[in-house]
Amino acid sequence: MTITTIGTAVRLRAVSRIFGTGESAVTALDGIDVDIAPATFTAVMGPSGSGKSTLLHCAAGLDRPTAGEVEIDGVGLTGLSERALTRLRRARVGFVFQAFNLIPALSAAQNVALPLRLAGRRPAAGEVHAMLAEVGLADRAGHRPSELSGGQQQRVAIARALVTRPAVLFADEPTGALDTTASREVLRLLRTAVDRHAQTVVMVTHDPYAAAHADRVLMLADGRVVDVLDQPSGAPEIAVRMARLEER
What we know:
Strand order of the largest sheet: 7-8-9-4-10-11
Low-confidence stretches: 1-6
Order of helices and strands: EEEEHEEHEHHHEHEHEEH
Number of strands: 11
Helix content: 25-40%
Mean pLDDT: 93
Number of helices: 8
Shape: globular
């Protein structure tokens, strides 16, 4: 199944990813073609082992596909050296994971500033504070991760991912470790980033409620996109489609 849109922030063409060799080889992705439009929120769902996280890792340049082409913001990843790929990720890609991956010894503000410093750029005056304010944590700038709740840590991680104004924000189960209240706040922030700042978001999730915040839901099975749901009406519709998928 080929998924195309007008204008692309992320493009995958005939992308396959095989782990292992010979009889032990496992095909995690099997010739996937997908276009992700700018300023949209895409959720990726599927049963365990369907290739969701592998798709995200290949699309984000964290893993190289066995075959096929990946582009981010018009830049092809095939043939880039590891150094060039690292520079591209720093400049054009943001990441949010289930594990918050904050640096324990750094304050919230220092964690948010880290991508800018790694890119060799000194944060502009007020830049980090403004980003923390966007996620509702302006008053927690000096707190270390151990002094923040799980939901607050994930909001810091979102601020850190967005501070470089990336072309694409990739989120892998960003609400998986959070309670209901914190999950809803994280999803609201991701939706706001799309609607207010024209941010492109690609999120892997197993949760129909989380996926209902997206503009489009891609459903995977056996390493292939087997169903697409545009403008989902809500979690019940997504849950029904997932149930059908798991019965295949």
